[in-house]
């Protein structure tokens, strides 16, 4: 098919527009406009991996393997072979001689990208809206099986950054919602499900990638700088990454943008300090695609793999690693122990996930849907062969995909119980969003258009639909007489409906990656803002003038302003179906016609006005000469944290979601672990692999005689002359590399806040357990209840904390009327702590008998019960603080 081939040719054409001289390193002074106080402090050296017991076996196997590798083999493994040079979106070099294969790294977080016969799962935001841990995990198991079935090694997901700070942000929909704990738990369960299938998961993007525009470094402009204070980083944006590391994630991807003025792909305090030392990350760190801007500097700052191998202007056959990394080691600039650590981390992740045993090789091509094609498309003149084997990996995964889509559907309003509908109902459907794009669901490259049913956003975070079960087809199965106006305008001549007729209006809002502009939106919703696309709000109003019973179904990447029509008396019901993926139809009709009660809950707040948020959140950062500055001046206060603090009533609060039935919750709390002010002292680091630190001989770096190179393919070898020259510098020290200020090469013991995967292991001690008995108190409908636990910190502590913060959630199974179920929620030491930037540790400020209140409810504005940590009592009927 044309999609990826077109992408390839576009990229080739793009590369031709640059002359090689423009490849000179980015000429910018990256820190000149960073606001005072924000610093990217040096943190060196890169911590060696292997010091944690949970990775010991993998590291000893990796050590045995890496000690057999030559210099050129080692550098080969750390780098991609070039964009469009292999079957996957990222392909590393190999060390076949010692049995280490090329690794296949593949998008996307919602299914195998650019491949046939796969499932297009619901997006992350939809998955988050289920608030259902078992379902989040089940989706991940299915995704992992598909990535394995296609022969990939690395799943480029889950996405937890962007976290959803800015409602207009383009890629929020790839993640799970605008709350760190929702992102953390959904991310960790996704990693668990995927990695149990032997696929390395990649938590991304580290960090502060909260808008799309101006994210990338290019020869004239650096990527924007997200300026984040230490406490906000720890308590909001880093929280899901810590949980991912705690879950044993194998890979981390850095973000395009900078943090505090330093590019994330070479940010020493971020990668070396926070990720590898404090969080104890043992896997490998890769760059986002084409964000590699410094060769030696990124290696020193802790990057382990560059993707897809090219410089940030691809397709010239140039890399800052591969042959350059070989040179940097020979000339002594990158210490040998750093390269050994890079390779060992990659090999250890490979062993940890069991990929040394019977792991399939890629049997599909991201570059073409044809059976045969070029083996190295970017080489232009490439040998051809079979590249697609059309392995069907879908199994029965449509079932879990449909379940997620269905259980995510969020009923915002249901006045007069218009829903569920009866199948004898006279129905009229409006809006192009009800029917699949007439050119086919995959007609637009990377889904970069908004035509027909919107099942996912656009960019690299997509998969091809095997089919799209659209809403109108599913509705027709229930109500064959349904009439459909496949237009986003209200028909000029429309017969007057009778008072009982029901109209369903489909509206959409799309967003995606900055590599494509759709209807004036540069990834972010910079043009459409928070209004429905295609005049959808106008359509709803017109329909509501004629019909007295209107249901609005919204397929959206995130929040919208619903004020133009939400209070109209005839707009009786509103369903957010989020981005359902391929199973958009039946999942919706199951809810519309009452086979199941809706049980989705909003993974973000819906405000009445866009500027209910402060400027730093409400607006995107626009063009600036030099570096665009995005300063997180709102600190911890995003989404409901901000609204609560500022007493702004949203239209629909975070967590809101109605059901056809009602539930009663009754809770008890019990203390499990007595907390201390700070966690107990961490254990010292264990030992790490020990290799020779001598610069290897130049002979390990030289092209094999008579090697037949593929044009523009990235190799790790040097000519004999180059290798000897570099070795001469390295062995004599005749030239010194200009190391960054603060550079050192003595391993550190690691900070007090570290010690285990994700941080000090004691942070995951369970402090309190809550048992919540949930009863379906309705008489007609079965339903699933969402139970959410929010912490309110003690009064009178010396830290300013958001009024309430989500800390755990559970969902019941489907409860028949009268039935009950007990769910258990847990609060850890970390859940009850704040990050003290002076102490550089987590502090539980309420240990001396102060009262934490744990609020149990089904949304941040529906908190039914207060449980007190000091007395162990739970009370219903208290007035919640928000
Ligand atoms: C960014 O700067 C702030 C303010 O100095 C500091 O608290 C924080 O630790 C810095 N973050 C990183 C990742 O360098
Ligand atoms: C690097 O990887 C490529 C691709 O697998 C392979 O052709 C080449 O021989 C490898 N180089 C070394 C030094 O093993
Ligand atoms: C494709 O993957 C399957 C496993 O799903 C494996 O059995 C097969 O060998 C692979 N095909 C190729 C050509 O590698
Ligand atoms: C070593 O090689 C790297 C890669 O080409 C280069 O950036 C660095 O400046 C060199 N170091 C010395 C001391 O020449
Ligand atoms: C619900 O409908 C009733 C009449 O059926 C009306 O009085 C009331 O204002 C409506 N409420 C909302 C929130 O639309
Ligand atoms: C649940 O039922 C109990 C006992 O009937 C009652 O006291 C309590 O207020 C109810 N709670 C909620 C949240 O409705
Ligand atoms: C739920 O827990 C309560 C109190 O611990 C117990 O009495 C009840 O039997 C449990 N209900 C179910 C359905 O397990
Ligand atoms: C079962 C199935 O969907 N098979 C498809 C796999 O992909 C090839 C090529 O796109 C199709 O022809 C098959 O129908």
From TrEMBL:
<keyword id="KW-0325">Glycoprotein</keyword>
<feature type="signal peptide">
    <location>
        <begin position="1"/>
        <end position="24"/>
    </location>
</feature>
<comment type="similarity">
    <text>Belongs to the glycosyl hydrolase 3 family.</text>
</comment>
<comment type="pathway">
    <text>Glycan metabolism; cellulose degradation.</text>
</comment>
<dbReference type="InterPro" id="IPR036881">
    <property type="entry name" value="Glyco_hydro_3_C_sf"/>
</dbReference>
<dbReference type="Pfam" id="PF14310">
    <property type="entry name" value="Fn3-like"/>
</dbReference>
<keyword id="KW-0119">Carbohydrate metabolism</keyword>
<keyword id="KW-0136">Cellulose degradation</keyword>
<protein>
    <recommendedName>
        <fullName>beta-glucosidase</fullName>
        <ecNumber>3.2.1.21</ecNumber>
    </recommendedName>
</protein>
<keyword id="KW-0378">Hydrolase</keyword>
<dbReference type="InterPro" id="IPR002772">
    <property type="entry name" value="Glyco_hydro_3_C"/>
</dbReference>
<dbReference type="InterPro" id="IPR050288">
    <property type="entry name" value="Cellulose_deg_GH3"/>
</dbReference>
<dbReference type="GO" id="GO:0008422">
    <property type="term" value="F:beta-glucosidase activity"/>
</dbReference>
<dbReference type="InterPro" id="IPR036962">
    <property type="entry name" value="Glyco_hydro_3_N_sf"/>
</dbReference>
<keyword id="KW-0326">Glycosidase</keyword>
<feature type="domain" description="Fibronectin type III-like">
    <location>
        <begin position="785"/>
        <end position="860"/>
    </location>
</feature>
<dbReference type="InterPro" id="IPR013783">
    <property type="entry name" value="Ig-like_fold"/>
</dbReference>
<keyword id="KW-0624">Polysaccharide degradation</keyword>
<dbReference type="Pfam" id="PF00933">
    <property type="entry name" value="Glyco_hydro_3"/>
</dbReference>
<dbReference type="InterPro" id="IPR017853">
    <property type="entry name" value="GH"/>
</dbReference>
<dbReference type="GO" id="GO:0030245">
    <property type="term" value="P:cellulose catabolic process"/>
</dbReference>
<keyword id="KW-0732">Signal</keyword>
<dbReference type="InterPro" id="IPR026891">
    <property type="entry name" value="Fn3-like"/>
</dbReference>
<dbReference type="Pfam" id="PF01915">
    <property type="entry name" value="Glyco_hydro_3_C"/>
</dbReference>
<dbReference type="InterPro" id="IPR001764">
    <property type="entry name" value="Glyco_hydro_3_N"/>
</dbReference>
<dbReference type="InterPro" id="IPR019800">
    <property type="entry name" value="Glyco_hydro_3_AS"/>
</dbReference>
């Amino acid at each position: 098919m044309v999609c990826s081939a077109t992408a390839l040719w576009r990229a080739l054409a793009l590369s031709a527009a640059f002359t090689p001289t423009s490849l000179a390193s980015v000429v910018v002074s990256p820190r000149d406009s960073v606001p005072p106080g924000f610093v990217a402090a040096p943190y060196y050296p890169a911590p060696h991996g292997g010091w944690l017991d949970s990775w010991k076996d993998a590291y000893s196997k990796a050590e045995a393997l890496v000690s057999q590798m030559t210099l050129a083999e080692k550098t080969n493994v750390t780098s991609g072979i070039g964009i469009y040079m292999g079957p996957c979106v990222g392909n590393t070099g190999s060390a076949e001689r010692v049995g280490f294969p090329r690794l296949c790294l593949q998008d996307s977080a919602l299914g195998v990208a650019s491949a046939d016969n796969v499932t297009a799962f619901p997006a992350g935001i939809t998955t988050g809206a289920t608030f259902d841990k078992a379902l989040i995990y089940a989706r991940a198991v299915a995704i992992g099986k598909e990535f394995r079935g296609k022969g990939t090694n690395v799943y480029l997901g889950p996405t937890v950054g962007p976290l959803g700070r800015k409602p207009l942000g383009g890629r929020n929909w790839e993640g799970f919602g605008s709350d760190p704990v929702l992102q953390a738990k959904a991310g960790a369960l996704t990693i668990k499900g995927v990695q149990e299938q032997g696929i390395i998961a990649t938590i991304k993007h580290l960090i502060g990638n909260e808008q799309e525009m101006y994210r990338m470094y290019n020869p004239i402009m650096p990527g924007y700088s997200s300026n984040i204070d230490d406490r906000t980083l720890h308590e909001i944006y880093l929280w899901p990454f810590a949980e991912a590391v705690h879950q044993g994630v194998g890979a981390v991807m850095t973000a395009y943008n900078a943090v505090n003025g330093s590019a994330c792909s070479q940010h020493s305090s971020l990668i070396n300090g926070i990720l590898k030392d404090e969080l104890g990350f043992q896997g490998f760190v890769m760059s986002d695609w084409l964000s590699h801007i410094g060769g030696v500097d990124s290696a020193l700052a802790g990057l382990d793999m560059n993707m897809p191998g090219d410089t940030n202007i691809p397709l010239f056959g140039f890399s800052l690693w591969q042959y350059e990394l070989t040179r940097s080691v020979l000339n002594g600039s990158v210490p040998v122990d750093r390269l050994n650590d890079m390779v060992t981390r990659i090999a250890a992740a490979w062993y940890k996930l069991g990929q040394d045993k019977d792991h399939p090789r890629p049997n599909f091509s991201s570059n073409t849907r044809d059976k045969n094609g070029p083996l190295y498309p970017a080489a232009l003149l490439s040998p051809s062969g079979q590249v697609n084997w059309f392995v069907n990996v879908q199994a029965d995964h449509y079932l879990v995909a449909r379940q997620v889509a269905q259980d995510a559907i969020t009923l915002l309003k249901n006045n007069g119980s218009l829903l569920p509908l009866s199948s004898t109902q006279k129905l009229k459907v409006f809006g192009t969003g009800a029917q699949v794009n007439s050119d086919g669901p995959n007609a637009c490259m990377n889904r970069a258009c908004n035509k027909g049913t919107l099942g996912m956003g656009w960019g690299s975070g997509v998969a091809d639909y095997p089919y799209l079960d659209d809403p109108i087809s599913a509705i027709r199965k229930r109500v064959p007489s349904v009439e459909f106006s496949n237009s986003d305008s209200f028909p000029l001549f429309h017969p007057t409906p009778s008072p009982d007729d029901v109209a369903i209006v489909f509206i959409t809002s799309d967003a995606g990656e900055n590599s494509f502009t759709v209807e004036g939106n540069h990834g972010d919703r910079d043009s459409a803002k928070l209004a429905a696309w295609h005049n959808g709000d106008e359509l709803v109003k017109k329909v509501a003038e004629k019909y007295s019973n209107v249901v609005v179904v919204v397929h959206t990447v995130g929040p919208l302003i619903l004020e133009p029509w939400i209070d109209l008396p005839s707009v009786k019901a509103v369903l957010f179906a989020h981005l359902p993926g391929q199973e958009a139809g039946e999942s919706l009709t199951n809810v519309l016609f009452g086979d199941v009660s809706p049980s989705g809950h909003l993974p973000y707040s819906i405000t009445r006005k866009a500027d209910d948020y402060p400027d730093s959140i409400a607006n995107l950062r626009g063009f600036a000469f030099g570096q665009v500055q995005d300063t997180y001046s709102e600190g911890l206060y995003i989404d409901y944290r901000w609204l609560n603090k500022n007493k702004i009533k949203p239209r629909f609060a975070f967590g809101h979601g109605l059901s056809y039935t009602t539930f009663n919750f009754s809770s008890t709390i019990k203390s499990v672990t007595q907390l201390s002010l700070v966690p107990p002292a961490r254990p010292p680091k264990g030992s790490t692999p020990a290799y020779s630190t001598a610069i290897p001989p130049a002979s390990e770096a030289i092209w094999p005689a008579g090697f037949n190179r593929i044009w523009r393919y990235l190799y790790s070898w040097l000519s004999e002359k180059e290798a000897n020259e570099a070795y001469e510098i390295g062995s004599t020290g005749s030239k010194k590399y200009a190391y960054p200020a603060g550079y050192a090469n003595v391993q550190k013991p690691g900070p007090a806040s570290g010690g285990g995967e994700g941080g000090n292991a004691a942070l995951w001690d369970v402090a309190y357990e809550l048992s919540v008995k949930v009863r379906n108190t309705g008489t007609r409908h079965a339903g699933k209840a969402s139970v959410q636990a929010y912490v309110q910190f003690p009064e009178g502590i010396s830290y300013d904390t958001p009024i309430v913060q989500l800390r755990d959630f559970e969902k019941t199974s489907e409860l028949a009327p009268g039935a009950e179920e007990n769910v258990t929620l847990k609060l850890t030491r970390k859940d009850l702590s704040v990050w003290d930037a002076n102490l550089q540790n987590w502090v539980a400020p309420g240990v001396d008998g102060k009262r934490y209140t744990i609020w149990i409810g089904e949304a941040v504005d529906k908190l039914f019960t207060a449980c007190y940590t000091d007395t162990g009592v739970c009370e219903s009927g208290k007035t919640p603080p928000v």
